[in-house]
Input
Amino acid sequence: MDTNALKKFAQSARNLLIAQVTARLDMVLAEGAAARREHPAAIARLEAAASSNRGQVIEQAAYTWFNRFTALRFMDVTGLTNPRVVSPADGATRPEILAEAMAGNLPDRARPEIAEYLNGTRPAHDGQAEAYRLLLIHACNEWHHAMPYMFERADMLDRAEDYTELLIPDDLLSPDSILARLREVMTEDACEDVEIIGWLYQFYISEKKDQVFAGLKKNQKITAENIPAATQLFTPHWIVRYLVENSLGRLWLLNRPGSGLAAKMDYYIAPEEPETDFLRIQRAEDICICDPACGSGHMLTYAFDLLYEIYAEEGHDAAEIPGLILRHNLTGIEIDDRAGALAAFALSMKAAAKLGRRRFLRMEEKPDVVVLQDVRFPPAEMQDVAAVVGKDLFTDELRETLGQFEQAKNFGSLIVPKLRDPIETLRLVAARDFGSDLLLKEVQARVVAVLSMAEALSPKYHVVVANPPYMGGKGMNGKLGDFVKANYPDSKSDLFAVFMERALGLCAKRGLMAMINMQSWMFLSSYEKLRGTLLSNATILSMAHIGERGFDTIGGVVVSTTSFVIKNAHDEGRRGEFIRLVEGDSEREKVLQLREAIQNPNCGWFYRASADDIAKIPSSPIVYWQTERFYELFRTLNGLSQIAKPRQGATTSDNDRFLRSWTEVSCQRIGFGHANRASAAAAAQKWFPYNKGGEFRRWYGNQEFIINFKNDGEEIKEFHEELNKTRPGGRLKNQDHYFSQSVSWSKISTGSFAVRYFPEGFIFDVAGSAVFFESREDFSYFTGLLNSAVVTSVLQALSPTLNFEAEHLSKIPVLPAKNRAAAASHASGIVERIINCSKADWDDYETSWDFTTLPLLSPDHRAGTLEASYANLRAHWQDMTDEMHRLEEENNRIFIDAYGLQDELTPEVPIDEITLTCNPAYRYGVKNTEEDREARLREDTVAEFLHYAVGCMFGRYSLDAPGLILANEGEGIEEYLARVPEPSFAPDRDNVIPVLDADWFVDDIVTRARDFLRVTFGDAKFRENLAFVEAALGKDLRKWFTKDFFDYHVRRYKKRPIYWMFSSPKGSFNALIYMHRYRPDTVSVVLNQYVREFIHKLEVERAQLEKLALDPAATPAQQTKAQKETTTVIKQIAELTEWERDVVYPMAQQKIAIDLDDGVKRNYPLFAGALKPIKGLEAADD
Output
């Protein structure tokens, strides 16, 4: 089945039908329309409905005809219709029912107007179209008795108040009609299974779903009427089979051990050990199955298939089986009328496929699909209700039950009827006869409706199977949210979890619940109580843990899911069967893995675990994939919090205001190295290092941010005090640990867990939480432990979602002091060496505040040429990576041995997890080839060389002194010369470096870069060195500086550039300045010495080109080239003249002052129009 084609059709069909129904509505309501004379009652009702909610009328008519068209096409293909209603006979083009009518073969009970339209006696613009419209309506009415839920009568002669007929689309016969398109996608192959109807429904409402979720992003709650669109998700067939076979199929096999049903169930997981305490079933007719959120009925239709096999195996007559199944076994509950109708239709088609047309039409049984409806009994009606029910039945429980369904469309199956046994009350109330008392009859009908819904929601089912709605608490409308909080406090975070509770409540004792939902209930702390209840009161029998990419139709990693079967009784010690499919990259791969695991439990992703095992892990995450030794660690060892409590840090609530990248502000304003709050508070500085988590990196690094904590955080504390008056906001947690050395980790990871050593001097963030130890030895030991394979495996159990909270680290099992002494003696030295190596790597790059000089220029690696120097440096980097790799694996070996996990874990570390920036496998990943990675590393190293050169041009760095030179606000050449009196490479004097297409100025950036190359590696081999640079970059030096440098700089400094690019609108003029050297007259320097000077140079160039173009001594080619270049120069002059006049000159007049404390995000926009725009600069800081 081509679901992409179905999706494309369904979405376009919805838009087409809405357009055609809208046109039809306007036509029939027009003054003087024929419909007004022929159907006045229907028009009156239509006008009333349209005036109340025109959009709803159109939407309802559109989906009604969509459902009917798809149903009729399916019935045509499967041979249920005769003649075919929307399909032509073989070899024909017109729908068969129309072709037969044109041949004089009208259907029985057909309206006379059909023949009149066809023979021309009744005037019409298109007689065939009008006749076919009536034939369609006739066919729908004929199928009403067999399937009233799909084909409500739309005949004006029978229901004068119904306006559906009036809104049938006009174009049904053209090659571009909705029916023609329908036939193209609903081919005979596609209609082999009725599940196509469910797919079409999901795709039909998909645009509505997108609209609902777009509203959700704007904090618009999901209303009751939008819940179906927001939560419908058609379940892939393989998941349905797993769920039904391991619930219904398992239950039947327990009751009929000799059954051959298992051979027909490809997704059935046979239990490891015999089961004796199970739900007893005497007959197939006794089995009750419910889908409490049935949608279009996919679960129910496969349950029908399996039940058919059960009945056949029991010896029932094939002609009786479909009726028996519909009468006894299947109940669907739904809040959406459309989905409910499609579910009932799908079950009917299952029956029809087994019975054939004639027997199906004679079958009296109808699918038991209960579509919940809002029913209200005002207090004034209670006397009438009592009269209908009778005083003997009108109990408090009944009264309360009658009031529970006012929000049935909103709360759905989550309603738990107070009346415990509504079936008997329903029977008695329904049997009462109120004669001609229409008022009491109407009340009686509503009471019966409520009792029928209550009966469906009673706990009687042997099997409950569902793909429930997924909706987080933030999306719930107010009434639904309040209802869930009041009735399902342990699962209130999401509707899928609430449905887990409710589904178990619908099960009989020892009944089975089969469900697919989000995996988050297995791990998140918000579901800890739910897990505890399940593990204590129920039993997980099996699970296919799907993870991401289980639904190809919704793509990517939108949802991470798990499917499972739970028994509504606790079996002490029973081990469930778990199949781990999370590694599969596609739905198809997961299907193959599931099939293989069922056939071969030794495949490597088949596990067995009991509730007792899982309960040994704190908070009881459903971590089924660990070994007995692993579970025992949690049972026998104390958590890390007994040694040192992991702690959360600060939450600013306004990062834009209180945080900066350290490179943005004056270096002298940053207080480095303070050992405690008192020392920092006494200092004059405003900014202090801030640990904010960051990317995956182990051992050392991610030291990039600073926080405004002047006067012990005076400003941020005042801000929090004011903020918290209106809503809970920022908090400065654990202040007594600020500035202490720590071991820290990033709260959110995209891969393995990693900790980093932080020396004294840092405040830490909630996303860079930390743990603190008393001694240096403990720091080394626990840094090694936390970065080991042991803790990685532990945290995969405690937080498989890769969101690492302090509470997770608190629970890491820690060996007693006497047991960790030996490991500590071995690990401490290794860890110290690793940290030193990681620190050296971090400090080799400009983004470290401890950066001193470029490694490529270090005497340790420098050779006669740049290429030879790079070769030396690359060899050194490889040695660092190899040594780090060896040490990390030795660290793993120490802790694996200490914890006795030699059979569970290996010490190997993937090369891409050796987190050194100089390691290309970590820096670029391992998806590309080693050759590609080496080429990128060489290119980036050369780019870093040129970037450092620009830093030397501006005086931020010097070849003659280590570290930062000019790094404070307003500093200039005078301050530079005070520190470096005789520089070998002098900085630019006016802080403006032009970046142009040629060397128009003496301080042109390419000219200066070439000078830098000569100074650093000599003049003798300049050409060779330049060739190496350009080969590594893949382009010439000027092209790289003009096209790539600024983007590279912005990317490297994470959209907080310190070198700013003045750039004209079309890029004819570009010049860099260094923001720390900026002064209020800097724009004037750019204007007078560069922009105006450049315009003057262009004027001279223009005159020379014009002269050349007219020079009779020039060749025709030279003249043509000169003419083209003249045109270009004229445009450049016009661009720059306008830019100078409208932007740069007025800005220079303003003499704008900046405060580096305000950061790039606030200062850069002050020069809007003059500076090159930075995409994403305005985005809020995380």
About this structure: The first strand starts at residue 289 and ends at 291. The chain is about 50% helix and 10% strand.
